[in-house]
Specification:
The structure is a single chain. The protein is of the alpha+beta class. The chain folds into 3 domains: 148 residues, Alpha-Beta Complex (Penicillin-binding protein 2a (Domain 2)); 294 residues, 3-Layer(aba) Sandwich (Beta-lactamase); 60 residues, Trypsin Inhibitor V, Chain A (2-Layer Sandwich), CATH 3.30.10. The protein is built from 18 helices and 24 strands. The strands form 7 sheets. A 7-stranded antiparallel beta sheet has the order 12-11-21-20-19-14-13, with helices on both faces. Strands 1, 3, 4, 5, 6 and 10 form a 6-stranded mixed beta sheet that branches. A hairpin with a 5-residue loop joins strand 3 and strand 4. The termini are far apart.
């Protein structure tokens, strides 16, 4: 190639690059601020933080997690008018010192935020000033109407609205999937949890463990399907502290390990019946509710005599039995960081020990449920979309013959009038120190199980009277939980949605109604499809914006405060 041709080619490349750079600068300038715009206040719906997450709703329609709008005021120094009289007005609107604001604006060299967390009322006041070179950016923040309720399940987000833990993290793609320019779509994410049951479980668990500074969990589960109605954790999760310290949730239900003594007991009752086929249950098998010492480190609080409690021995391959019941493997619940428990390896069969099996409270509850429910081993879940009847397996354990003997187990347990089994266990932890653990496990109704439940506690001393009091409270919760409408094995996707969504025409309002005194659930239903919604607090509406009678449409943001 000649020198002249090389020069020509080089010159053309330079022109192309220069033109591309110039065009990029123009596009960026037009995108950020429109120099020719007379109305200089704009709403930016295209910021990366504007991806609005779906509202999370419990099975009865209660809003558990919502979104609050947050507004920030930015200026571009190169486009701001030399007349700075607007600064005094802005200082008064956003409650900042005028001198500090003047200093901040005068020193700004790039696009700079000068006010954050503005209310909608402040935004409207700023818009009227028509400040050249200013822009209002709208962001979405997660709001929790019930404060700390179920945060161990829900998880939380970082300051940029990205999921860190819990259901928020597990279902990130489902919850964070739309940029909202059109508020006619107000997506919600329905979970199996029931708010009141969750609240009561957290309260009672806190009463049980707060005085002893213990840790633990409580789970209520639909026994046929695996839907989780409540999963309480103690200590409670503090949203702000977890974000500040960048922690991960230690969800005790799926991470702590316990010896599954109730499961061992039930499997041995089956063995006892198989070896003693003439054995019949009578009132003679029932005694006062006093603790039985079946092992130097294990106490069982129940209504059954020593003959029913004595055998913690194995008469077969317990390893395959516990694997069949789901130990040593995750339940595959839709929460991150689940652990699979532990089945300790033995050097030889003579060293095998039933008490060397450990499982999480959720594993133990699932195995207990399978034993009394004809061998159905369910897959626990929170999202209704996770329900799959094909994932429910039959326990493969020839020794147990659960379809034949589950009724026998239910009959034994009915002798105690529905009271759960309580086991108290002292075993060494990994450091060799004593680890005091308690399990309360049961189901309701006693003859036709609908709901099963487990309460697990670490660090408690055995106090029979105190435990009896809590047994009554948790049994009452199970009785109430059994009245909740659950999925059935015949449900399809459409039927699942009908559990929490009534098929009815939605009225799109043209004017803001008077919302005062409305419940959160009624407010959500009233405004659905008419405008965007932002909530603060819980209870009934005590204030609203805009005021009643104001014209609204799908781009309007309706703000409601509850108490």
């Amino acid at each position: 190639m000649s020198k002249e041709r090389k020069k020509t080619t080089y010159f053309i490349h330079v022109i192309k690059i220069s033109f591309f750079v110039f065009l990029s600068i123009v596009v960026i300038k037009l995108f950020i601020f429109n120099e020719n715009s007379q109305s200089s206040i704009t709403y930016n719906f295209h910021n990366s933080n504007n991806i609005r997450r779906s509202v999370i709703i419990d099975r009865s329609g209660e809003v558990i997690v919502s979104n609050n709008a947050s507004y920030s005021l930015y200026i571009s120094p190169s486009h701001t008018s030399e007349n700075s009289s607007w600064i005094k007005s802005i200082a008064a609107i956003v409650y900042v010192d005028e001198k500090e604001l003047i200093n901040k604006v005068s020193n700004a060299r790039i696009i700079t935020m000068i006010a954050d967390d503005l209310t909608l009322q402040q935004v409207e006041m700023i818009k009227k000033l028509e400040i050249k070179g200013a822009e209002i950016i709208r962001k979405e923040k997660r709001a929790y109407p019930h404060n700390k309720l179920a945060l161990n399940i829900l998880g939380f987000l970082d300051k940029d609205n990205r999921a860190i833990d819990g259901l928020e993290y597990f279902y990130e793609n489902s919850l964070r999937n739309q940029i909202f320019e059109n508020y006619e779509i107000n997506p919600s994410f329905h979970i199996t949890m029931e708010k009141n049951l969750q609240k009561n479980a957290e309260t009672e668990l806190g009463k049980l463990l707060s005085n002893v500074r213990g840790t633990g969990s409580a789970i209520f589960m639909g026994i046929d399907t695996g839907e989780i109605l409540a999963m309480a954790n103690y200590p409670l999760i503090d949203h702000d502290l977890f974000i500040k310290d960048n922690k991960k949730i230690n969800n005790n239900s799926i991470t702590q390990n316990f010896r599954p003594i109730p499961v061992i007991l039930l499997s041995n009752w089956i063995t006892y019946k198989k070896n003693n086929p003439s054995f019949e249950l009578t009132s003679a098998n029932v005694k006062e509710n006093i603790p039985s010492n079946i092992n130097e480190n294990i106490k069982i609080l129940s209504h059954f005599d020593e003959n029913m409690l004595k055998a913690i021995t194995d008469e077969g391959n317990f390893h395959s039995l516990f694997v069949s019941l789901g130990f040593g493997q995750n339940t595959e619940i839709d929460l991150p960081d689940e652990t699979g428990g532990l089945i300790k390896d033995a050097v030889n069969s003579g060293q095998r020990n039933l008490l060397d099996v450990y499982g999480t409270p959720l594993q133990i509850l699932r195995a207990y449920s399978a034993l009394i429910n004809d061998g159905k081993l369910v897959k626990p879940f929170f999202s209704f979309n996770a329900f799959n009847k094909d994932s429910i397996k039959e326990v493969e354990a020839e020794r147990l013959e659960l379809k034949k003997y589950s009724a026998f187990l239910r009959k034994i347990l009915s002798l105690s009038n529905g009271k759960p089994i309580v086991t108290y266990d002292i075993n060494p932890n990994l450091s060799g120190e004593e680890n005091r653990q308690m399990i309360i496990i049961g189901h309701y109704p006693v003859n036709n199980p609908v709901v099963s439940y487990i309460i697990s506690a670490n660090g408690m001393d055995f106090n029979q009277q105190e435990i009896n009091n809590y047994v009554k409270r948790f049994l009452e919760m199970a009785q109430n939980a059994s009245k909740i409408k659950l999925l059935t094995m015949q449900e399809n996707t459409q039927n699942k949605n009908e559990l929490f969504t009534q098929k009815e025409d939605i009225t799109v309002l043209k004017n803001m109604p008077d919302m005062s005194g409305m419940s959160m659930r009624k407010a959500l239903k009233t405004l659905h499809g008419s405008c965007g919604m932002s909530f603060e607090g819980s209870g009934i509406v005590i204030s609203q914006y805009p005021s009643p009678g104001t014209t609204i449409n799908h781009k309007t943001l309706c703000q409601l405060k509850f108490k």
